[in-house]
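pinning this so it doesn't scroll away 📌
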Amino acid sequence: MQVKIGVFGGSGFYSLFDEFEEIKVDTPYGPPSDKVAIGRIGKWEVAFLPRHGRDHSLPPHRINYRANIWAFHHLGVERIIAPCAAGSLQPHIKPGDFVICDQFVDRTRGRIDTFYDGPTTIHISTADPYCPQLRELAIECAQKLGISYHPQGTVVVIQGPRFSTKAESQWFTKMGWEVINMTQYPEVTLARELAICYVNISLITDWDVGLVGQVEPVSAEEVTRVFRENNEKVKKLIYTMIENMPEERTCHCKDALKGAVV
């Protein structure tokens, strides 16, 4: 079995296939969030893993990001599609919209965020952390499906599990960042360390509380409700992307380790 595409499920997104087999993957970094489901989409064998576990038992700060990424890598995955629930920091980005992020800002703390703890030292570039080839594909497929989307955006990743204060949220908004989320870091950079292409599709579930006077404080119930309402739209986009996935990787992701070893 050769599995070259992996998909992570976010809040409210716990299954991808009608028919699949499940396998348990052991990793040097401990257990992944759940068993990995393997199914077929078009000509591709695809691996699916809900990052919070199928019963959402893992809050963002307790996810074993290294184990999840390594499990995909062990199966042969070269490309990861990573949808997630996220909040909007800007009035023009509405609940139900998708944002194809091109940058992140890390505001987490204490998360294990590298595979390279020595003696080999690796300094990968994250100047452009998301795969340009997969981002272009996501944009093309969103256009084809008539999905309301934004072709770029910066996601600020907070530690969680709490939501932001109004002061924090106002700061993020004033910085011009578009999206707020709790799981993008270190997931995206760990993928880069293993030379895996990675694209984020942020499904906007709410406006963050910094948009004072316009929104009510977000609740976990509301986030999950909006994500579930949009599950079919998310799945349709993922299926369309995979069905149109080019054979060759033409991006820089596959060469991430070249020149990175000290």
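📌 and the second one:
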Amino acid sequence: MQALNKWLEDKLNYHFKDETLLKLSLTHRSACQKNNERLEFLGDAVLGSIIAEYIFNKKNESNEGDLTRYRAYLVKESTLCEIAREIELSNYLILGSGENKSGTRYRCSVLSDTLEALIGAIYLDSDFEVTKEVVVSLYQKYISDIPSMDELKDPKTKLQEIMQKEGISLPEYTLIETHGEDHQQTFHVSCRLDKKNQITHGKGKSIRQAEQEAALMMLQQYEE
């Protein structure tokens, strides 16, 4: 526990008063029935509130849609995973013996969930203001260098905005076919522009992902 506390103080500048909360936040469901899933739920909500307040104050010219995109970028799994890796969180996860051998501790989904659980534990161990200080410190390089709003817009949004600006009918997306078992399906979607008589195709693990890929292909064609 001494090494754990030293790591926390070095990386997060925080010391737990209740060390059982710290241990629980790092405990994966494979290790114990009493695990960090409830703390993850709380941490997700606390993190969302902190980031929402921060960008609300910093981006005072942004509308609701833009603020939503900024928040989504900052709390998405890949961002949380990067932060978790930067603070070497994987070294301190508590896993079941099987998961310990399978590389689970390095998975982005596990790292991002555990970081949220840790934030939830800090909130319970302290208060909102202290947790905000920890989160802002962790996010410093991300909130000081947020991509432009144009970069944050997904391909479907970009394509729709171009069509609206040029007075062209909006793209039509059609699910063409689905492959694979129920738990591991691949969706194939087409994107059609009637006025240009152009069709592109995309595939993904969800219909939304497939639509985004088809929209990206259409954007590339349109720009050419």
